[in-house]
Write a structure and sequence with these properties.
This protein has three domains: 213 residues, FAD/NAD(P)-binding domain, CATH 3.50.50; 111 residues, 3-Layer(bba) Sandwich (FAD/NAD(P)-binding domain); 110 residues, FAD/NAD-linked reductase, C-terminal dimerisation domain (Enolase-like, domain 1), CATH 3.30.390.30. Helices cover 31% and strands 23% of the residues. It contains 13 helices and 23 strands. Helix 1 runs parallel beside helix 8, helix 3 runs antiparallel to helix 4 and helix 3 packs across helix 5. Bound molecules: flavin-adenine dinucleotide. Flavin-adenine dinucleotide binds next to strand 3, helix 2, helix 3 and helix 8.
């Protein structure tokens, strides 16, 4: 039996920083990881995909060079091996950086292997037993494969396995029109594939307001991506060296199929029942406002607790636990304002409630929208697609939420994230004086338009 002050299962976005903070305090820490340090974000999520998005954008901008008076002689082509290698290198740099940092931090022992509870304070890994009074679960999530007819008979890709391909799919069919699927759709279209997005719901990115979903669809269709919403009875069959995807009497012959229909928590192989840790119906670990589970001495952080599905929410879980356990502060997950981005180009930056959510919450809703065509920066760069939208409460003057679908929307949204975090009323923010020419400069005008 090896004794530690703390055991971490999974080296995702929360564990490394919390483990390092504890080690700094002189505690002994075991960090158990079954695959790669850095988890999904570094190895199969944000970092490789945003690197691929950057390559896809370079191809797109090159093809449009003529519109800017720049002449490129010769054909613009994409070297998929080089594209993949670039993404792989960025991942490896981050993974190796983590390995060097954690591997040289006194007090941290890294153990590679699959961990499972043997008792509420005991973990079995590689035939050994570890024990600690504090155990932190940061096990993340993995892609869900829906039980659709014929799917087991065909070769399909997930958001993880598609990162290994270094050839160009002739026709990529993407099952699922949400964030991950849409990012891959535009990226592969820009690499040169024919792309079809197949979504069961009535619209893509269905968590967003309808106007956002529609504008996103316009952006994708303008690049000749085929978007099929309301797709019922989706089925798969082998066809030559590819796959026939059928829906509602329509057949698509795809060379490759990407299944992007959601993710589920890695909590089913952890022995949580042995420890008595409660999960909800979908396997997410139930936690309180400080991320403690129902079992004293066990916490759950990151995607596996169902309170966030992003790198920044997992990292913020670390900050919450560290503040409460180590810094004698009182921090709660319920204080977090939801914010995220969808990395299409232009991206969608989002914070807080949608208009629909605000109305459903019984707020006295004010809304303002402005097209990106009104933004000088967007016109100068000839990227005027999209719009910005803000939702506020007429009674309290709170900003309830915002969406910026447009060039640099993922950055510009931070002006509103910060204002909301600081509790700034829209009546104050609408008189700030932004810098010209930026995307953010339209925000005060947007707020003055609230009706
Ligand atoms: C394609 C894609 C793109 C994404 N893009 C973005 C983005 O742009 N921005 C963003 O914020 N988020 C993005 N995300 C989501 C983001 O990657 C995750 O929210 C984030 O990585 C969650 O981190 P985590 O700390 O919960 O766990 P993870 O990073 O998933 O890490 C969990 C770790 O636990 C390990 N593990 C699991 N079970 C065990 C066990 N029993 N024993 C030992 N080890 C175990 C796993 O191997 C893994 O390394 C993306 C995700 C995907 C799939």
């Amino acid at each position: 039996m090896q004794r530690f002050d703390a055991i971490f299962i999974g080296a995702g976005q929360a564990s490394p920083s919390l483990a390092a903070r504890m080690a700094e305090r002189g505690m002994t820490v075991a960090l158990v990881e079954r695959k790669f340090l850095g988890g999904t974000c570094v190895n199969a999520g944000c970092m490789p995909t945003k690197t691929l998005v950057a390559s896809a954008r370079a191809a797109h901008v090159s093809r449009r060079a003529g519109a800017f008076g720049v002449t490129i002689t010769g054909e613009i082509s994409v070297d998929m091996q080089a594209v993949r290698q670039r993404a792989h290198q960025i991942t490896m740099d981050a993974r190796n950086g983590l390995s060097e940092w954690l591997g040289t931090t006194d007090g941290i022992v890294i153990i590679y292997g699959h961990a499972r509870f043997a008792a509420p304070d005991r973990i079995a890994v590689n035939g050994d037993t570890l024990t600690a009074p504090r155990i932190f679960l940061n096990v993340g999530a993995r892609p869900v494969i829906p039980d659709l007819p014929g799917i087991a008979d065909v070769d399909y890709l997930t958001s993880t396995s598609i990162l290994d391909i270094d050839t160009l799919p002739r026709h990529l069919a993407i099952i699922g029109g949400s964030y991950i699927g849409l990012e891959f759709a535009q990226m592969y279209r820009r690499f040169g594939s024919q792309v079809t997005v197949i979504e069961r719901g009535a619209r893509i990115a269905s968590r967003e307001d309808e106007d956002v979903s529609e504008a996103l669809r316009d952006i994708l269709e303008a690049e000749d991506i085929s978007v099929r919403t309301g797709a019922e009875r989706v089925a798969f069959a082998r066809h030559g060296d590819g796959t026939r995807v059928s829906m509602d009497g329509i057949d698509i012959e795809a060379s490759h199929v990407l299944v992007a229909t959601g993710r589920k928590p890695n909590t089913d192989e952890l022995g949580l029942d042995t420890a008595g840790v409660n999960v909800d119906g979908r396997g997410y670990i139930l936690v309180d406002d400080k991320l403690a589970t129902n079992v004293p001495g066990i916490w759950a952080l990151g995607d596996c607790n169902g309170r966030g599905a992003f790198t920044h929410t997992s990292y913020n879980d670390f900050e919450i636990v560290a503040a409460n356990l180590l810094d004698d502060e009182d921090r709660k997950v319920s204080s977090r304002i939801p914010a995220y981005a969808l990395y299409t180009d232009p991206p969608l930056g989002r914070v807080g409630m949608t208009e629909r959510e605000a109305a459903a919450a019984g707020r006295n809703v004010l809304v303002s929208t402005r097209p990106m065509a009104r933004v000088g920066r967007a016109r100068e760069r000839d990227e005027t697609r999209g719009f910005m939208k803000v939702v506020a409460d007429a009674d309290t003057r709170e900003i309830l939420g915002a969406a910026i679908l447009g060039i640099e929307g993922d950055e510009a949204i931070h002006g509103i994230i910060d204002a909301m975090s600081a509790g700034t009323r829209y009546t104050d923010l609408q008189w700030s004086v932004p810098i010209h020419p930026t995307v953010s400069e339209l925000i005060p005008t947007l707020l003055r338009g609230l009706r």
